Fold each of these.
Amino acid sequence: MPNLSPRVNLVLRSIVAALLGLGTFVARAADTMENAYWNMPKGVTEISHRVWWLHMYAFWICVVIGVLVFGVMFYSLFAHRRSKHPVPATFHESTTVEIAWTIAPFIILIAMAVPAAGTLIKMYDTRNADLTIKITGYQWKWQYEYVDQGVSFFSTLESKANAARQLHSGIDPKTVPNYLHDADNYLILPVGKKVRFLLTSDDVIHGWWVPDLAVKKDAIPGYINEMWAKIDEPGTYRGQCTVLCGRDHGFMPIVVKAVSEPEYEQWLAQQKGANAAPAPAAAATPAATEVAGAEPAPIPAASAPAAAPAADAAKPAAAAAPAKLGHDELVKNGEKIYASTCAACHQATGQGMKPAFPALVGSAVVAGPVDGHITQILKGKNAMPPFGPQLSDADVAAVATYERNSWGNHSGDVQPAQVAALRGK
Ligand code: HEC
Ligand SMILES: [Cu+2]
């Protein structure tokens, strides 16, 4: 800097250095904030990136507006305080200012609406999907159906978390990894494929939300909502039900696992292999096919018979539906089904929660004839939902046997054939 006294030179240099420092600080702070865990996640899809960008874009516009407005306000409060300016100015009505403060917000709104509308249009474009998954919400679990692949299963709260959440369980939730954010079966999806989700519910309104995928919609009985995601990176993405759907609303987590395409194909082949076994068995049971007619299915695609045997694919015992099962096997399978399907209302101890949910300890239904017990499970009663559409014959037999031989009950075993005979009646 020529011709400047050393002192001026120093002052100028200091100012430049201070501005640079401040700039770096603001940039760093902004970066930290944008990536902070409490900010909205950037996610792993193009849409989620766009949504995140919109969120930050609107946020920074708000910051600038906030700084300007509060800046003018605080400056005015200070500079024109009464002790300095006892007599206020009397001017009013400035056309220029009025036009400016009409046009400026208008421009800001347009600047925000244009990219937002573009993103919304993209979000709603579910055409040309490579793969369709039908998601059905139940109190309190999710069902995933790979529509064109004939694969279907339920996803419920992982068992350790389910045990820990019970009243007086004595288990510290902090010792359970991903407490309430882990499921027994994950929704497996291939990366780089456009996946269309069809979302509905079997009972009340649920909401399917995975922040990293930027998908969130209500699952409404009788309606089908659509959304889609194309996941860029393999990984495990967690979400949860977002509509207050009853007392166990907090216990229906969502876990999506995105894997490479070959891994996905391999997994799918495994599922199909596992599904192949129970399918003919179910068809061979005449009663099972009648369910379609007997069940008042509000949405045609929700037809239960296809879903039920497929869902049991994970449980090998279910494959042998018509066969006679041993006592120990029934009780063992029944205990699992009870924990994931019944314990929410009747409690792990079978004590229920009076007065709404009756105890199964010393229950007349459990101690009574097998047929009444089975029918109650298949068809439900009052506040108890029907489990016929969700559980296979082997499942119902197992859970009934478990109830009849637990907590001091001793009322004998139930075989899948007995359940099959009562379905559709
Ligand atoms: C959403 C809560 C809920 C779930 C889940 C549930 N039940 Fe029930 N259950 C009830 C209610 C409510 C009743 C009482 C129905 C009535 O008599 O009005 C009941 C009654 C029963 C009874 C008869 C008890 C008695 O003495 O009257 C049996 C047996 C039974 N449930 C078995 C099961 C089995 C097996 C499952 C799991 C497959 C299950 N329940 C899941 C709510 C539930
Ligand atoms: Cu829900």
Amino acid sequence: MGYRLPDRADMVRVWELKGQRPMKKEVGKGWPEQLRDLWSGEIEWHSPMARWCTLRVGGLARGVATPASLEELQSLLGVLARLDVTWRVIGRGSNLLVSEAGYDGVIVMLGRKFAAIDKLAGGKEVGPRLQVEAGCSLMKLVNWCSAQGLAGLEFAAGIPGSVGGAVVMNAGAWGKEMSEVLSSVTFLGRSGELLKRAKDDLAFTYRHLETEGMVVVAAEFLLQAGDRKAIDKRCGQFLRDRKEKQPRGLASAGSFFKNPPGLPAAGKLIQDAGLKGFRIGGAQVSEVHANFLVNIGSATAQDFLDLMGKVQEKVFERFGIRLEPEVHLL
Ligand SMILES: Cc1cc2nc3c(=O)[nH]c(=O)nc-3n(C[C@H](O)[C@H](O)[C@H](O)COP(=O)(O)OP(=O)(O)OC[C@H]3O[C@@H](n4cnc5c(N)ncnc54)[C@H](O)[C@@H]3O)c2cc1C
């Protein structure tokens, strides 16, 4: 893979190659037809977002496009810009709540076709480096590292989602987070340019990276050489701890609320507000871990929104603390 950062001239060529000259809207054709004419990648029309989100709720997206390469992604975003169509990039939808109204635009899904893992040459003196495409599943990366004897990412064992999503969310567990193992992130800017930013130039905070509206296309990880068996053991222990502490067999988006800084964890506040097991429609505060809002089978997105509001209200009434959702709302 190895992204070479192109100069502007290269970029213009990429866009022209795809036949994306400035265009007039064609009379009688809606944007979906025009998109279909101009972009040959995979798109599913009128696709239920419940299928793409781990909460298993959400209405229809007009289109869900799955580019299979950086070039396809670049050409897609170019066409969408020219057609003035709203879009949003997602990974595995494990931190997303999409409304019943769905999404009147194109969901761009970076999935398994955008998932290469490359070991980078050099840098031995500081540790092994990997470049990973954003659509790679985080679990696949953790397992790959474990098999290669690369230590550092064990904390991520059991976090569902893509590498791109994990970078944007600055996903973390057991006191560690993605920003600690990254050395740089490569973005695709809104006007089609690739930008590689060193970790020190990125604004990572708790469960957030400021992307300035850009798409994460790849991330570079700086890991340590380690003993395979020991790495495996640590991953196994983290997975067992998750099984013990988190609800199993029910759809969720993991921790629904951010932990308020310097205060008891959100789960503890929700539990102490007496909300464990509290339910609205098919959405419930988990009996196992109060910061997990789970779909007990028949939930709608509205049930989750109502439950979110109720939890915020009760925790505020009881402790004067306003819980902020960690889950992104769409
Ligand atoms: C059972 C369970 C356990 C979980 N445990 C944890 C945990 O321990 N720690 C933790 O931090 N999280 C946890 N999560 C939440 C979630 O898995 C993480 O936040 C994950 O990193 C989200 O990745 P994703 O690919 O699913 O992102 P998505 O949910 O698809 O997207 C999340 C946000 O990132 C944006 N985005 C996604 N990809 C890109 C991209 N390439 N470029 C730009 N923007 C992008 C989306 O637009 C959206 O705003 C858990 C979730 C579940 C269901």
